[in-house]
Request: fold
Amino acid sequence: MPPESWEKELNSIAPELIAELKEKKEPDKGLPPLELKGPLVMRFAPNPNGPPTIGSARGIVVNSEYTKKYHGKLIIRFDDTDPATKRPMLEAYDWYLDDCEWLGAKPNEVIIASDRIAKYYEVAEELIKKGGAYVCFCEQEEFKALKDAKKACPHREEAAEKNLESWKKMLSGGYKEQEAVLRIKTDITHKDPAIRDWVAFRIIKTPHPRPQVGDKYCAWPLLDFEGAVEDHLLGTTLIIRGKDLTDSETRQRYVYKYMGWTYPETMHWGRVQIHYEDLLSEDSISKETEYYLVVDGQKYGVPKQYVRPDEITTSLYENDINNKGYAVAVGYTTKGNIGFKKASKPYPLVELTSKNGFIMISEKTLIKNLGKLSTSGLKKAIAEGVYTGWDDPRVPTIRALRRRGIRPEALRKFMIDLGLGETDISLSLDTLYAENRKLIDPVSNRYFFVWNPVPLEIEGAEPKVAKAPLHPAKKEMREIPVGTKVLVCRSDVDILKIGERLRLKDLYNIEITGLSPLKAKFIGTDMDLVKKEKARIIHWAPPDGLKVKVLSPDGEYNGVGEPGIEKELDKVVQFERFGFVRIDSVDSEGVVAYFTHK
RNA sequence: GCUCCGAUAGUGUAGCACGGCCAAUCAUGUCAGACUCUCACUCUGACGACUGGGGUUCAAAUCCCCAUCGGAGCACCA
Reply:
């Protein structure tokens, strides 16, 4: 019996079985469902020491997605309790709120930790009274030595009254920085050294950047304490955070136990790195690539072998070598795309990541690994002028993506599709771009933009007004007046030969008659000729067009665009045969556009 | 060194709590073709993975053990 008959037969006997079979095949969309015992309260808790990054977007989106789905409450809480080393930026508070709203994740409540220090003091005092916390005067190294030896420090057994007294003195500024800390009493013999008697408060005399707070406090809570107290005060029921904070839970549970509170449910996700993959030019990849390890321009090693560090003496950093002594390497496949591969099994190796953020690939190509830049690293680079600001297209912030014309829905979907895995991932923004392209392609007008322009004189052509569709699926036309001279791209010119026939898109056909200077003659307007001869179709721009500059993650493109682009300010358009861009500014100097993606 | 976590195609995911519907899902990517006055979009097809080794079982991606690799924490950072 053929399968169709089977289905028919089965349908008549047991229709529910068919339904079940089909249902089974349907993939789960979106985030995994939650098993809730009560109302859902979640928080997203950044330190506003810089604008939200692509990594922050994950937290914003996932938290908001769940609270939307289960009619819960979303709180944004600024964990700004370090006025010194991770000093908050005043502008960043609003940047977070703004980017959240843009992402469709407007929080129900906004909490600023530095406004609520007094509440943390109350809890601290109670903990001291209960014997769950003590003021410690050990020097850092001294305490670490004791801790590693599972030994208590002399202050641990101090009476509660004495601790209370010291605590008051801490609050009133009676100690210098580094002189005293408040520790939570856990288990000094805990098998995990990360858990043993952790610090809840330290003394910082640097004033807080927020004028409302200023120098009001000199005892500041650390994240583990502030977070523990706030999560309880806010009634948080589910916490999703990075794997790096898993130990926090174990530490914080001691506070919850002393106070008789109930700890929220927790979920974790792995480390995220972003790599940009699209900087390989096609000619740098051949299908039958030979693989080398390249360090500082030198070839080492042979493919399909692990690369041993003793074969390489230059520029290998400690972090690039795993504990087996193999270099952590990155490869690309014969298909030409790049992937990070674990060095645990043989793989055609080509390159080495180096600590300075670059990956070497063969001799020609360089890939920037933007995901590796930390907020503080970015801050420094911006101050030094390496980047123009927090929305420089090369910088991995939400602001930069916005400026480039990425739609919030695309970013949301991208983050939701990542899911909640505890696996460490290294991802490519390609998927985000593909998602975004689907959204903007149907609504983006088309224009010509010629980068690295080369003038082309056409004999026998009459000045005319070219008509081209604003969008291939719509009927509105754009009009481009053109004389006997046009501009074309250097990259198109480079491969031209005398006698070659080509089509200037939406204009007419030409035959090349000279290369330097570039000359051609008019040979008609007939499209059939183009189709018959399979002539190349290239785009062009009038010499008196608009000056256009495109800023993209991999550099600047300067050229000339057709008139009309200036009407698209703040919109995303497609520069044909170039890619999508967002028109960022228009003035007498010309047009500045931000590259969205191909 | 101590502790914890993880491992499915190039990339990211689904499946794992309850072993058979899994010769393994979806997206992206790559290749080929169709469409097209763009290298965009759309459509069709192809490619491509359970880290390794043992064990339990009639049956293992799924449970157990070991190995390997990767990541994180052990801060008066968040």
Remarks:
- Residues 190 and 476 of chain A are 72 Å apart (CA to CA).
- The two ends of chain A are 50 Å apart (CA to CA).
